[in-house]
Amino acid sequence: MMNRYINIFRYLTALGAVLFGAIAVFGKESELMYLGIMLLMLSLNVFAHAINLRGKRENKAKEITSYVVGSIVFFVSVFLILRNW
User: Fold this and answer.
1) What is the pLDDT of residues 28-49, one digit of tens each?
2) What residue segments make up the domains of the chain, in order of their start?
3) For position 71, what pLDDT does the model report?
4) Contact present, 31 and 20 (Cβ < 8 Å)
5) How many CB atoms lie within 10 A of CB 44?
6) Are residues 2 and 55 in contact, defined by beta-carbon separation less than 8 angstroms?
């Protein structure tokens, strides 16, 4: 049951990343703000992938790598959003 909710969350964050990426490319406003939000969606997607790996108990190295990459992307996205506020 939890795996189903994780997959729904992953698809929604991927959709959000695509939408905000399109706005950043084609929009005339501040592109960095939308790029930061797109990166935030991608970091949430990576965290959801790590939670999914934890539930499966398959590969501990992939899980830890997903948490590290998700954290780095999260901090970069927050920096971009706050810089352009």
Assistant:
1) 777 788 888 888 888 988 888 8
2) 2-83
3) 92
4) no
5) 21
6) yes
Q: What is the mean pLDDT of residues 43-65?
A: 84
* CA distances, 49 to each of 28, 31, 34, 45, 81 (Å): 33, 27, 23, 6, 23
Quote the CA–CA distance of 46 and 12 in Å, as a whole number: 12
Which amino acid, 78? V
Sign of the Cα torsion 11, 17, 20, 24 reads: negative
| Residue (of 13, 19, 1) closest to 49 by Cα position | 13
Which amino acid belongs to residue 20? F
CA distance 70 to 31: 22
Residue whose tokens read 């729904």: 8
pTM of the predicted protein model: 0.79
Which residue shows structure tokens 């990343």?
Answer: 17
